[in-house]
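Hi R.,

Here's the chain you asked about this morning:
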Amino acid sequence: MVITGVGLTSPNGDDLQQYRSNLLNGVSGVVNYSIRHVGETLAGVCNFDPLRHQKRKEARRGTRAGAVSIYCAREALKDAGLAAESTHIGGHARDRVGVYIGITEHGNVETETQIHEVAQYGFDLSFWSHHHNPRTVANNPAGETTLNLGITGPGYCLGGACAAGNLGLIHGLQMLQLGIVDLALAGGVSESIHTFGIFASFRAQGALAKHDEPARASRPFDKARNGIVVSEGGALFTLERLDDALARGAKIYGEVVGYYVNSDASDFVLPSSDGQEACMRGALASGGLAPEDIDILNTHATSTPQGDEVECEAIRRVFGASPATYVNNTKSFIGHAMGAAGALELAGNLPSFDDGLVHPTINVEELDPACEVRNLVLNEPVRPARVERVLNMSFGMLGINSAVVVERYRG
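And the predicted structure, written out as tokens:
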């Protein structure tokens, strides 16, 4: 299965070209941000135009996650050169197109907002919106996308915590393999910055980043790192069978050649290097690959002291003897986009097959010795001798891990 289109919005870019340019040039998307009950904090905020693909009434009735999903889906189809017509989507019958969107959570934003609004009226529930239920059901982002595009095939969300971006892509690939659909829009989205509860919870854990300069707050592997920058965003991929893509002369970003999903079964929040190691090895094995076959390893590292150390331990176990594998991190630019993280991070590395560069991890001023791994790319891009395969890793609460391997299509 191959990726033929990318639609995204991120804190530092609303299309792949802008996003990639900012990743290569060290441009962060983290800014000062204020949210009720929490006050001043930091976040990665997207600036896409939700009315590019929605009418004002539709956007007002729907959700932020729905708007992100619609934008990314429409842009992914456009990027793939596929038209959304009244009876077909990219030449496929509408019931043969699937939408598979990974999410961390859904409904917190709308529920918090509704409670806040009725509180202004003494909790008179006559002020509670009749749109609340369709806004908060877990399938909302995918459902809004199917409504917008007229897709009548399967459209739903996959709750995979912060591993969900990879999970959406994996599920879309599997539905193509099973013959359930002929075209898939798959990836992940997040609206997390619009719920004060997420900020409050991370603050209570002591895991919310602080820095006088917002652009320097997300600093995975740095000795002074102090927590997560919460971000919003989304990335959806157009997935097709290779024969279909070749038949229409499509641009191919890469071929998905391996993946794996597993669970730690060890803790609600704390990661496990054993589980992460097993996930990486599982993804390699599914593609018949050895560690030295991977040229770019994109890390999950969120900038928490313990989380980064645990992941680096797992990386050393798997890739410690691989001289060809370069390691980078995308959250240093955009913060942690939760359900969208894995999809955005994979998208940011796909252009490496064309430009031959590995984007760096920024904001590393003093590398934590516990985070030392071989060929860690810091602060400036590097040009390795070869870029043929990318391994993208994402991990989430309650111990879910996911990994995807994408290979340059060589024809």
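The domain at 259-407 is CATH 3.40.47.10 (Peroxisomal Thiolase; Chain A, domain 1).

Let me know if you need anything else.
M.
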